[in-house]
Backbone:
């Protein structure tokens, strides 16, 4: 559901394969070293001459939507990424009525979260204060 919602929010430029590649390249700490751009682009489904450019564009879109943050390092401007809790990010987008986030998809995610007991979709929104700090420090809302 999360990947479907991400793609709905980025019509014409789906980001789900890029996000899934990041997710598969992290461990328990949500941190990803982006030192092999070509491999990351290829794993995300972007090949050929424009593959790395397309991948970088999708990475920036994920950052703009606050699903990830990107920091520079040894591999240039896209050297490190951190993946934020997508449930909290989507709750923030829902509260802020972000274009592209449909009520039907959000409610489907919420129903699924209730079924599996994902409390971060239903607990009081105290973590929002942390998310607001992250978003504010990255030039967002």
Residues:
């Amino acid at each position: 559901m999360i990947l479907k919602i991400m793609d709905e929010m980025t019509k014409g430029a789906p980001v789900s394969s890029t996000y899934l590649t990041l997710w598969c390249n992290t461990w328990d700490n949500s941190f990803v070293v982006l030192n092999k751009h070509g491999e990351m682009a290829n794993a995300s489904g972007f090949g050929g001459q424009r593959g790395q450019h397309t991948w970088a564009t999708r990475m920036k879109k994920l950052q703009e939507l606050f699903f990830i943050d990107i920091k520079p390092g040894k591999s240039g401007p896209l050297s490190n990424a951190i993946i934020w809790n997508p449930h909290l990010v989507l709750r923030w987008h829902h509260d802020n009525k972000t274009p592209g986030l449909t009520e039907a998809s959000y409610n489907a995610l919420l129903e699924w979260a209730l079924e599996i007991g994902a409390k971060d979709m239903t607990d009081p929104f105290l973590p929002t204060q942390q998310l607001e700090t992250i978003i504010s420090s990255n030039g967002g809302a």
